[in-house]
Structure formats: C-alpha cells, structure tokens
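As a warm-up, study this chain.
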Amino acid sequence: MNSLQLERRRGLERLPRVQRERLSHIDFKLYFLGELRRADVVERFETGPAGATRDIALYRDIAPENLELDPGTKTYRPAADFTPLFEHQPQRVLTALSKGFGEGIGDQLQPMVRCEFPNALSLPRMSVLAPITRAIHRGKAVRLGYTSIESGKTERELVPLALVDTGIRWHVRAFDRKSQQFRDFVFTRMESPTLLEDSPVAREETVEHDVQWSRIIELELVPHPKHPRPEVVKLDYDMPGGVLTVKVRAATAGYMLRRWNVDCSPDHSLVGPEYALWLADPLALYGASSAALAPGYRDPRPDGTHRIVKAL
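Now compare it with the structure written out below.
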C-alpha cells in the first residue's frame, strides 16, 4: 500500500460508519461490476436521490481518478487507473456476487452475476436454530430431543458453544450433560429445543474448558506427491513456496481436511484427482478428536483406538 492509499484509508476511517458503508458499496459496484448508477445507491440504502448524489460526489473527491461518467447513459464506470478504496474480503465478495446482498424482508437471494454452486442438501430448521443461537449468545443450556445413530431418540440437556459448518451440513459444538462430554450435534437431528432460563451453566460446561475446541493445530499442506502437475497445485492454492500452512481447531480438523480432500495417510497412499494436497506431517493430528474423519488418517497408537466423533 503506497502513501496515497494509506492516507485515503485513514481519511475513510474518520467518516461515520454508515457513510463508509455507502462508499464501500460504490467501490464494490465499480470494481466488480464495472458500472454504477445513482439508483444503485438509492435502492441499496433506501436513501433519496440527493443523498446518493452526495455520496458519489464524496467518492469522487476522495478518488477522482477512480471513475468517469458516461454522459449518454449517466453511468459511472471504473477509469483505467482505478484502485479500490476499500479492502474487499474474497469470501464476502463471492457471497455477494453469487447470492446478492439479501437486504429486505423475505427477499429471495439473487446472484449479481451468472454463477452456479451446489445447493445445500441439509439445512437447520429456523425453529431449531434460533433457540440454539440464543443459548450460545446468552450462555444458557437447552433441553431437546435428539436422534443419534448410536442411541436412537433420547432427551438431552446441552450447553451449546459454537456453530460449525462442515461444508456438507451444520452442527453445534456443545457440552452434553448426559455423557458429561463436549460433543458435536447435528441440527437436523434435533427436536423442539427449549432454553433453560433457570438452569445455571457450570464452569466445566463452558467453552473455555473444551480442550479440543481451544487447541489450535497448525497443518502444513503440500502438493500431493503423486499429483502429475504439482506446479498447478501451487497456483491453485497460492503456495509459491510449496507449502500451505493453515490453522484449525482440534475439534474440527477432521471435518476441514475431509472438506478440502487432503490425503492424511502417512505414505500418501490415496489415489485420485480429488487428492491434490497431502498433509506433510499426519502426526500433527495426534490427539485431535476429529482426526478419524480425515481422509486416509491412521491412528499411530498401537491399538488404533480413538475417540468416536458423535456427530456422525
């Protein structure tokens, strides 16, 4: 970042947040869609035409070289020397482009450009999700019915701690008062959760005492030794040095490695085009409760015992 960009960023930080949001939207439209109309600001923020005109004028004052007006269509377009004023995070940008901003009550998600992505086959019901997120936010326990592969349908008291997206489904990390353990519970197997207002949460039931959640594992992923084009893998994963280092929680490491199709066998024995990456040191997963979910993982203990991941 050069000195001019740094000065502009500092100037933006002094503006009210709502105004920064409007300027960021202008920046987004120019950068990723290549055009901006006054109506875009009016519709997005439900502001009047005069207010939108002032926002665009302020943007032009800050970065006059970023946009130029097409008088025929009254559309602003990014100039040849356009440099974004804001740092746009890739995940948020891709979500906006593929699903829209989703503003408004009951609005259907509409992509901003043509795109295709897999439909989610398993989503929590809102009547189940809401009590769980309230419990996480307020530090409360819930009572619910839960159907598991191992025990069938039972009644449980859980202390929900966090939501987890495995890429295939959502689950909640929680303390289970029945087993007296921290475990993973799938949303779609829950029924009628009720917030327990008068059931105090003990210290040993809180997230600070979930060792698997608190433990951070550093993983070094490298191009799979059997991949025919390791240079392509380095490009795909932005790893010019040949190593991609990621940090994950012990409680979720197995889920993430499965989602990324990382071969975690000690002898990189998994074969297939889906295995572009290999975990250079599978022992990094030692002791992680979710390790058994990692593709090809072999428990180094002689008896091969490991803690079963109860969300399966």
